[in-house]
Design brief:
With about 450 residues, the chain is of the alpha/beta class. The protein folds into 4 domains: about 1-95, GMP Synthetase, Chain A, domain 3; about 100-215, hypothetical protein tt1634 (3-Layer(aba) Sandwich); about 220-335, hypothetical protein tt1634, CATH 3.40.1520.20; about 345-460, OmpA-like domain (60s Ribosomal Protein L30, Chain: A), CATH 3.30.1330.60. Helix content is about 40%, strand content about 30%. The strands form 4 sheets. The protein has a 6-stranded mixed β-sheet with strand order 7-6-5-8-9-10. It has a 6-stranded mixed β-sheet with strand order 13-12-11-14-15-16, with helices on one face. Strand 14 (about 285-295) and strand 15 (about 300-305) form a beta hairpin. The protein starts with a helix and ends with a strand.
Length: about 450
Amino acid sequence: MSQRHVWWTGFLLLLIIWAVTNFVMTDGVESDLATRATAAITAGPVLDKPSVTVAGRDATLAGTAFSAQGDRDAVNSADNTNGIRLVNDTIATVLPAKPYMFDARRDGDKLVLTGNVPLPAVRATIIAAAKSSAPNVTVVDQMTYAQGAPDGFDAIAAFGLTEAGKLADGEISLADKAYSISGRAPTAAIYRAALAATRQLPAGASAGKIDIKSDEISPYVFDAAKSDGLVKLTGYYPDEQTHQDMLAAIDRRFVGSKLNDELKPGKGAPKDFAEAASAMLQQLSRLSSGVATMSDTSVSVKGDALYAKAAVDIPAELSAATPHDYSATAAIGVAAPAAPLPATECQPRFADILAQGKILFDTGKASIQKDSDAVLDNLTATAMRCPDAHVEISGHTDSVGSDDTNVQLSQRRAESVADYLVKAGIPPERLNAVGYGKTRPIASNDTEEGRAQNRRIEFDVK
């Protein structure tokens, strides 16, 4: 009985030792196999969230493969791991997407990424590009994996994010190879650059819907047309003061013309817009009919001058008066000469011109202001139609100042006007300049309005 008891006791001890040893060793072997199989998988094909569990020497693979080939490669890598006997494949494979879509849009302080992405590395590239393009917003990744990305997908998406980041409320999207972008450009320069970028897309992309707007007008256009006694303005002006200044200049310069103002306010006017517009309108006022156009920093005037010398002078004067950062072109012909007039019909025509437009001088001087060019050109053209008329050009002043000073000033002013007509082609013997000073008022000198009326030039046919 004593020997049997010892035998069973020894056997039980051996059984316990065997069980413990087998359990510990098996667990270590499974852990080692799982580690080596996982290393083999991650060293080769890429899985999203790869997982390997081992029971005995049988491995079960889980995770997401980005293609059927990736699934097979993962299985083969695990199967070739030394010690693995059987591989159980539970890997999910992402499905193809058709069309292959991607979208990035601003939503307040967030940049939301949706649509498809082919691989984790591409996902990381796109997220990095999104953060770089919009550093002050939160990037929200709602992309899902899918097969079927077009060639160059990551480069196209990164390019689009960079361009959209320059826009307010920017959004880009891809539908297979079609690239679309929308948003508002804060400046005209960014607007032009954004449009230019759509014509230089990365390889593999084609232009889809392009809907880029600008807070600033581009190109910034201002047009004026003169025909049949009407001046029509279209395009934009930068502020109301500039607008009113232009209207006032037109009123001074355009003789006997009605105004059709269709201008609208708009941001983005180029530097020195008002100066360039003034130079353009000044020369248009001298034409019998014509068109003047400003597009950003390009100015052009086309039409017919009232006589030959004006056609020569207008291009040079336009170029001289246009700001140096602008280009100026003029194509000026000469209007067909009108039929000659008998001397008796010339006086009312001169009077009518001077009633509609006044010859202006610098204060206290005989130098003629440029705003008077159109009036002088119309007087010159009328004098050309009156070859038999001899004209007295008389200067008049208000009552301010001494008699001698006013007579001398009015004489010099009359001579300045006569000189203008002679240089334009009127024979000097047909003109006689006379200064009357303050001796022939046509209104009371007690008011500024009356004094302004008395400061005048008159044409009298003799």
